[in-house]
Design a protein that fits this description.
The protein has 467 residues and is an alpha/beta fold. It has three domains: 213 residues, 3-Layer(bba) Sandwich (FAD/NAD(P)-binding domain), CATH 3.50.50; 120 residues, 2-Layer Sandwich (D-Amino Acid Oxidase, Chain A, domain 2), CATH 3.30.9.10; 94 residues, Glutaredoxin. The protein is built from ten helices and 27 strands. The longest helix has 22 residues.
Length: 467
Amino acid sequence: MNTDVLVVGAGPTGLALGIDLVRRGVDALVVEKADRLFPGSRGKGIQPRTMEVFDDLGVLDAILAVGGEYPVGMVWQDGERVGEHRMFDPAEATDDSPYSTPWMVPQWRTQEVLYARLEELGGRVSFGREAVGFEQDADGVTVRFAVGADVRARYVVAADGGRSVVRRGLGIGMTGGTVDPNPVLVADVRISGLDRDNWHVFPPRGEGDGFLAICPLAGTEDFQLVAQFPEGAPVDLSLEGIRKVAAARSHLAPEDITEVRWASDFRPRAALADRFASGRVFLAGDAAHVHSPAGGQGLNTSVQDAYNLGWKLGAVLRGGAPASLLDTYEEERRPIAAHMLGISTGVHRGEVRRGKATVQLGLGYPESSLTEETRAEAGPVRAGDRAPDARVGDVRLFDAFRGPHWTLLALGVEAPEVPVRVVPGPAHEKYGTGLFLIRPDGYVGWAGGSTVGVGVGIGEYLARFSA
């Protein structure tokens, strides 16, 4: 084998997975067909649950340093400010959810942060490596490239986007379609004469026009410009074309757009892969689900795919867990992706508000085959739930969870002898009383009132994940 895991695609999904694998001692190679990281701002919203993931992966401080809060929307009409528009329902940080609102970081900068962390851990990205085909057998996968030698891996993860070559090679279809037939222009631009204190919104001036929104990108001198066009209309990505649409829909003069740093156009769509795995090949991120950008769910759901798959690959390759553990990746992540596709489509169509539904803190795996709730009467936190932050004595739980390990909370009951990190303490108002075995990805895998409980005991449960 050339590597344990080959990750195809160096976007946020592939880089996050690379970090998680390398910190678990897994030999992982990330390949990217382009000669550099993606240069645009496209996925600019980091949701609170992803911030918790980034905390665990060791990149949160860097993400906080290069980003900022979303500004208040300012609605313009005929060159006048006519009212504010709140993009998100307000939420206060709490002891159990220290990150309560999205954090704005342009996607290119998020990728820079993840790439630097991957290199810090000894991981690597091979650029200019376009995967063109592969063959898999009982022992591994051989991937062929447009240029350069083949790579042999025990497992392959396709993180190569909505037009995934790997997914197509597997013959896995996607179910879904267009969310909105109107094409959308998105561009990173430099603008003079527009303040950076607001997200500037210019409603359509007449029938047949589309909206224009211009948002200052935190931590940069750029603005993200988004413009909608009528169905079938051409979208001009040139400086002149972008100047023309901005001048037609706002009070800006053409020359106020001084530079276009990146531009793209798309038709909002939602689609879900029919399967997330085939043999030794897995789909993650946009290769598995494509979202409308409304609500900022695509990048976040994708990073959490990587977070779910990373610890399972590590357990199989380094911990002696059976390969059947990897079957739970699709079992757990595909329903979540389907749910979040509904949310992002609802936000796009104005049916769902950005807020509690979009921060992803309420997601969990209560129906997973990895979830064991052994208490007849469970408390406020159940097996399958996200493990909330809290203070137990002098210990902050997110500090105790951080790292590629399992953690056992023994709250108000005796702590058993188990081969994982143990945090003992009294009964807690958030968790209640009991034993809570926290998975490496921050969800409660097993919960009970004692080591035996009703059903699978804690020792039997842990034996599933090690030799």
